[in-house]
């Protein structure tokens, strides 16, 4: 089983990229539907200090769509070299003694690492960060904040009466964490700096944040756009991947067919 896990997870990398693209496209469509039908998305976040800031202005909605769509081209989302790094981190922490472990938790960390790499240009590396680290805490606070947001969405107008210090602290933590990257990108734009890799070569990979600061210098809007896409790119993808492995574990005929197709790659990355 372990022998086939490595190429299988590499092949699943393509699925990860596709799911992110599909989810974001759906997010854009539902936003336009909500805006055109007068849905009150502000019930989720009644202030600019809340977790996500939905901007319902028609002009800004058009600007967002024009900015986001090019970011999810086939070339941009199939950067398998970057994803391979996170796949290997996942494989390295999977127990090799056949003991039971929670794969879903690891998949949520995998998609968080990959999404932040794509959006911010730097991964939080939650798979390899020690317990109690800022990177680990970011994932925990992010989960709690969005859990509370679901309740606020259900409450609608009454959401203004729903809140807690823990929720507020979680939002502040997430904001502060992302704001560091936003500030760094805005400063780099001002100084006309470019990103370089460890070897001193100019980075060629697509970074969403770099493109975002070219369209607007509003740090609140930049942060909100990043969190909106992170929400779409992380949770849904991790959930579907969890279900995928749940099904594969119970359908040996599908597993065998998939294993045969993976073997044809000869250990190479899919293209």
TrEMBL record:
Matches recorded under InterPro entries: Cyt_P450, Cyt_P450_E_CYP52_ascomycetes, Cyt_P450_E_CYP52_fungi, Cyt_P450_sf
Matches recorded under PANTHER family: P450, PUTATIVE (EUROFUNG)-RELATED (PTHR24287:SF1)
The entry's keywords: Heme, Iron, Membrane, Metal-binding, Monooxygenase, Oxidoreductase, Transmembrane, Transmembrane helix
Cofactor or coenzyme needed: heme
Organism in which the protein naturally occurs: Coleophoma crateriformis
Gene3D superfamilies referenced in this protein's UniProt entry, alphabetically: Cytochrome P450 (1.10.630.10)
Name of the protein in question: Uncharacterized protein
Family from the record: Belongs to the cytochrome P450 family.
UniProt key word Oxidoreductase: yes
Gene Ontology terms, MF aspect: heme binding; iron ion binding; oxidoreductase activity, acting on paired donors, with incorporation or reduction of molecular oxygen, reduced flavin or flavoprotein as one donor, and incorporation of one atom of oxygen
Entry's transmembrane regions: 6-28
């Amino acid at each position: 089983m372990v022998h086939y896990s490595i190429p299988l997870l590499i092949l699943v990398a393509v699925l990860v990229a596709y799911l992110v693209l599909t989810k974001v496209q759906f997010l854009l469509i539902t936003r336009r539907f909500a805006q055109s039908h007068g849905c009150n998305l502000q019930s989720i976040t009644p202030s600019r200090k809340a977790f996500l800031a939905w901007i319902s202005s028609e002009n800004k909605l058009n600007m967002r769509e024009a900015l986001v769509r090019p970011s999810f081209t086939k070339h941009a989302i199939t950067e398998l070299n970057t994803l391979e790094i996170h796949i290997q981190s996942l494989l390295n922490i999977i127990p090799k003694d056949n003991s039971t472990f929670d794969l879903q938790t690891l998949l949520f960390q995998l998609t968080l690492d990959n999404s932040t790499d794509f959006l911010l240009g730097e991964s939080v590396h939650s798979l390899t960060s020690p317990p109690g680290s800022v990177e680990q805490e970011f994932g925990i606070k992010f989960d709690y904040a969005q859990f509370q947001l679901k309740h606020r969405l259900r409450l609608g107008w009454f959401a203004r009466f729903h809140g807690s210090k823990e929720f507020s602290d979680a939002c502040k933590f997430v904001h502060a964490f992302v704001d560091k990257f936003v500030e760094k990108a805005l400063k780099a734009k001002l100084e006309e700096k470019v990103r370089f890799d460890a070897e001193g070569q100019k980075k060629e990979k697509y970074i969403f944040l770099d493109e975002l600061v070219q369209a607007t210098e509003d740090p609140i809007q930049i942060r909100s756009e990043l969190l909106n896409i992170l929400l779409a790119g992380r949770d849904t993808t991790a959930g579907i991947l969890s279900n995928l492995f749940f099904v594969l574990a119970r359908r040996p005929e599908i597993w065998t067919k998939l294993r045969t197709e993976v073997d044809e790659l000869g250990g190479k990355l899919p293209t």
